[in-house]
Specification:
- With 155 residues, this protein is an alpha+beta fold.
- Strand 7 and strand 8 form a beta hairpin.
Length: 155
Amino acid sequence: MMMQKKSFKSWKLEVGSWKCLFKPFSLYVILRTSIFIILSSILLFFSSCKSEFKDNSDKFKIGVFEIPAGDNFVKETIIRKDTIQISKYGNNIDTLSIKWKNNFFYTLKYINPKNSLQEDPMFVQINEIREDSYDFTVKIGFSKFSKKGTVFKVK
């Protein structure tokens, strides 16, 4: 078996061409890293905006609220604490349990229903949040009936 000797010149040429292969690779790494940093910065920016919006919606879980009288509703005062909501409208006072699925969706259920309509849960979706109010859509049970309204935070 004969071994072929390589001259120093040919070895240097191979090493030189080997280095040339990595020049585009290093450019690729720099470009990829730059894109990663830019995308991470954008994601961080939007996630910080989202958390501010989320914190804003938490303030509607506890307190005193009012639904003004209008086409769809009689004036209603709502007191929320923990998992209980007390609703005062006209001469009526009702106690409901409230379960929050997330900051934009909750379910209300009468604790002592007075008729068959009050036995169904009410599904409330928060559509738009402002500083001291939010717009909502409520559905009763699994029917197609729904109403829209606005809740204002009083305290």
